[in-house]
Amino acid sequence: MAEKAYILNRDEIDRIIKRISHEILERNKGSENLVFIGLQKRGVPLAKRIAENIEKFEGTKIKTGKLDITFYRDDIGQNIKPIAQTTDIPFEIEDKNVILVDDVLYTGRTIRAAMDALIDFGRPKTIQLVVLIDRGHRELPIRADYVGKNLPTSRDESVDVRLQETDGEDSVVVIRKE
């Protein structure tokens, strides 16, 4: 794999997260009844960053959790060796506005699996989706409510989101598969 292009740097990611934080507050008329759940692995730090912004803006504590969808995937058993991570949702989601956060939206299959997993925890009032990058190529009728950047890609490319908390840097890079 060879790097193709740097798309976002740390400052650009920070600006996007601030913008999305404001959009969430505007759409939900404040922070009341909001909870954030990040998808493992990179959705978790993104969810925490957005929640921290909202806490600063609103002066209220925002609950965050993390969700692993490994055993909800529809490609399990297709020569994929799943590596399960932690699910930690230490609060009720019943009748809450759940803000589901992931780094990249591609086919929609990960989000479908995440919604299946969430329903096992209760019935939220709403599920809203935040993604840093929407790269298109949907296979399911899923769209994000909040998008950091729309980034049309070809199927022979991948989008590599790197975050300080998981990778030691903040950047988004498009990589061409060879």
What does the model show?
The chain has helices spanning 10-27, 43-58, 109-119, 164-167; strands at residues 2-8, 34-39, 63-67, 97-105, 126-134, 146-150, 157-162, 171-176. The protein is an alpha/beta fold and 178 residues long. It has one domain (2-176): 3-Layer(aba) Sandwich (Rossmann fold). The strands form two sheets. Strands 3-2-4-5-6 form a five-stranded parallel beta sheet. The protein is globular, with a radius of gyration of 16 Å. The model has no long low-confidence stretch (mean pLDDT 93).
Question: Which properties best describe this structure?
Answer:
5-stranded parallel β-sheet, 178 residues, 4 helices, 8 strands, 3-stranded antiparallel β-sheet, Rossmann fold
Strand order of the largest sheet: 3-2-4-5-6
Q: What is the CATH fold-level name?
A: Rossmann fold
For this structure, what is the CATH class? Alpha Beta
Name the beta content range.
25-35%
Give the domain tally: 1
Radius of gyration: 16 Å
The gross shape turns out to be globular
Average pLDDT rating: 93
The main β sheet shows up as:
5 strands, parallel
Oligomer: single chain
